[in-house]
Amino acid sequence: ARRAGHQEPAYMAQVIREQRITLMHFVPSMLDVFL
Fold first, then answer.
1. How far is residue 4's CA from residue 22's CA, in Å, rounded to a whole number?
2. Residue 18: its pLDDT value, please?
3. Phi, psi dihedrals of residue 15, rounded to the nearest 5°
4. What is the pLDDT of residue 21?
5. How far apart are alpha carbons 2 and 6 in whole angstroms?
6. From the first residue on, what is the mean pLDDT of each consecutive set of 10 residues in the chain (35 residues)?
7. Which residue in 25, 18, 35 sits closest to 9, CA to CA?
8. Burial, 11: exposed, middle or buried (Cβ in 10 Å; 0-12, 13-18, 19+)?
9. Cα end-to-end distance, the chain, whole Å
10. Which residue, among 2, 12, 17, 4, has the nearest Cα to 26 in the 3D structure?
């Protein structure tokens, strides 16, 4: 993962797809942005 990538929803979505992640935990504010 790249530095500060956890703060970029588009980057997170890319990594989730590439790594086939099926379970994640979010703080409420990040979940709102991600959805």
1. 21
2. 96
3. -65, -40
4. 95
5. 8
6. 86 93 90 83
7. 35
8. middle
9. 21
10. 12
Assigned token pair, 14: 């890319």
Contacts of 2 (CB under 8 A, 6+ apart): 11
**CA-based radius of gyration for the chain:** 9
Dihedral sign, CA of 24, 17, 5, 33? Answer: negative
Q: Which amino acid is at 22?
A: T
Residue type, 15: V
Q: Is the separation of the CB atoms in 21 and 29 below 8 Å?
A: no
- Token pair listed for 18: 């590439």
